[in-house]
Amino acid sequence: MSIADKIKSGDILTMSRLIRDIDDGMPEAEITLQKLFKHSGDSKILGITGLPGAGKSTLTSLLISYYRKQNKRVGVVAVDPTSPFSGGAILGDRIRMQEHNADSDVFIKSVATRGSFGGLSKSVVDIVRIMEAAGKDIIIIETVGVGQDEIDVVRLAGQVLVVTAPGLGDDIQAIKAGILEIADIFVVNKCDLVGAEKAASELKDAAEDNITGDLKPIVMTDSIHIKGIDELTESIDIGFDKFNNDNIKNEYLDRRYRYEIEYKVRDKLTETIRESFENDPVFKDILKAVRDKKMDPYTAVTKIMKNVKLT
Amino acid sequence: MSIADKIKSGDILTMSRLIRDIDDGMPEAEITLQKLFKHSGDSKILGITGLPGAGKSTLTSLLISYYRKQNKRVGVVAVDPTSPFSGGAILGDRIRMQEHNADSDVFIKSVATRGSFGGLSKSVVDIVRIMEAAGKDIIIIETVGVGQDEIDVVRLAGQVLVVTAPGLGDDIQAIKAGILEIADIFVVNKCDLVGAEKAASELKDAAEDNITGDLKPIVMTDSIHIKGIDELTESIDIGFDKFNNDNIKNEYLDRRYRYEIEYKVRDKLTETIRESFENDPVFKDILKAVRDKKMDPYTAVTKIMKNVKLT
Q1: What pLDDT sits at residue A14?
Q2: Most buried of A144, B41, B89, B149, CB within 10 angstroms?
Q3: In terms of pLDDT, which residue wins out, A147 or B260?
Q4: What stretch of H or E contains A45?
């Protein structure tokens, strides 16, 4: 059986190995990804984002349980240094996760932010592709809502939950700082805490959809005491039902593939520029001229744009 | 007096206007930046990064007070949605900040993450340049240590403080996820809290400098009760003294300008690709072929690399 066939059968070990090979930049891995492409595009992809401390991971865990009860196969990509999926955890969360880890129809993959640009989104895009080809019905991308790349990556999703909670400082302000427009559903988690109603009412002004003028759903949840989850999953289901309309589905796929292609092109260009700084004497001379104040960096950028050799 | 001359005299209104013009993409703004370049490169630039809740802003505020007592002019660029400098704040912090706001030798500029790639670092680079030309002796770049762009931007700095605190979940794990290697000094803030000693001792393994083999300084601070600040500022001063060595200074400037140029080139290329997707029929056809599964996105990336027109 080929690697692509093994992935399609949902083989966990082969999936993990392929993800590692992608990380290691193995050329065969990209060939496998090319083969898997035609088996992707049909999973429901849910983005979950919000500030650290909003309770995204506990919510994710509850959603996994909900979809598993419906006998759906679930994939999770966690990009969040404070998430139990990706390492930082309180013990209770971690135990809850381990329950899912034992479930062979739940595939969880954590992706660390690497502190160097380019790598993050590339691997998330490919991991999602592998999960789709492996027949996951729903794929959750959980990412901390701080950091441009981290926010951007949920653009792969058909729907995005923006999760907030009372007591995270001036949450609404933080949400305004960039993730408002990508939300399809707002979740005020930890709704048993003081300030939850206030957070929800502040969100109302901000939750108006720019295109339709409708108010985006604002759902109050308490993922510790398991409140509001039915309402949330109902909102999510209604949202995904919209993709039964071909126009809406195509619009989403266009947005998703465009994001994917733009990101990968940007990655390759960044790599090309980086290598040129290491190896190309023209680049080295330009850098030296800037350091010696014989050329300003703005002029340097223009000169380098002319000298980038694309392959 | 020209705009560049007004900036050099430290005129706050002109600085703010130029920053706004850069944001608005005014071509004259870049010409001013080109003129200001030769007056930059001499400020001490300090990066401060760490997870939300580590107390970076309170620490920044104390450092501002320290440098002001030495009669140094201070600039602060805050890129952190949970920072009082950039909007999200507890009241106490905000009041403390306002004290500095009334001081005309302290220039604080907040930069929001915008939820779209490219913009962040570009504006930070230019704001730092303006602050340098305006004669700021020390410039602090405060950024949340989550998110690749947010972490990368402290590479402009001569020295980077990585701030952690007990009780942020599995902090050390989070630090390992990408910001370890960029730290020059580790700060365990909120050192009065349980777990501070443990955090410091865990850091010891991680704090070995890859190049020199030395242990990077680990400083315990409590910025609420103002402990450890003398030790911290001493470590910072020792670090900046190293730049009196021309080789070390040149190495830093090379790294900084290379970062700056790479980022700006990447921004321009990203913009070019984005515009091509809007306007270029070749790009549109490629996207349609991918959506129709006639072409996989990996092949699309290769085709688009060949079609990018650089200007």
Answers
A1: 94
A2: A144
A3: B260
A4: strand A44-50
Q: Do B152 and A117 touch (CB under 8 A)?
A: yes
Cross-chain residue pair B116–A277, CB shorter than 8 Å: no
pLDDT at position A80 over 70: no
- Containing domain of residue B53, as a range? 40-247
Record the pTM. 0.77
Q: Is residue B258 part of a domain?
A: no
The rounded distance, in Å, linking the Cα atoms of B230 and B221 is: 9
Interface mutation vs chain B, best among A32, A91, A298, A306, most B CBs within 10 Å: A298
- Name the residue among A167, A169, A203, A201 with its Cα closest to residue A186: A203
**Residue A266: half-sphere exposure toward Cβ, Cα within 13 Å:** 28
Q: What does the CA dihedral A187, A193, A196, A197 come to, rounded to 10 degrees?
A: 130
A149-176 average pLDDT score: 74
**Using CA atoms, how far apart are residues A195 and A239, in angstroms rounded to an integer?**
27
Q: ipTM above 0.95?
A: no
Pair (A54, A44) in one structural domain: yes
**Cβ within 8 Å, pair A310-B311:** no
Let me know whether A159 and A280 are in one domain.
no
Q: Is the pLDDT of residue A117 over 60?
A: no
Mind telling me how many Å the CA of A238 is from chain B's nearest CA?
A: 24
CA distances from B305 to A27, A113, B31, B272 (A): 18, 26, 30, 12
Instruction: For residue A258, tell me if it sits in a domain.
Output: no
Q: Is the domain of B75 the same as that of B200? A: yes
Q: Is pLDDT at B117 greater than 80 in this prediction?
A: no
At B277 the pLDDT is: 87
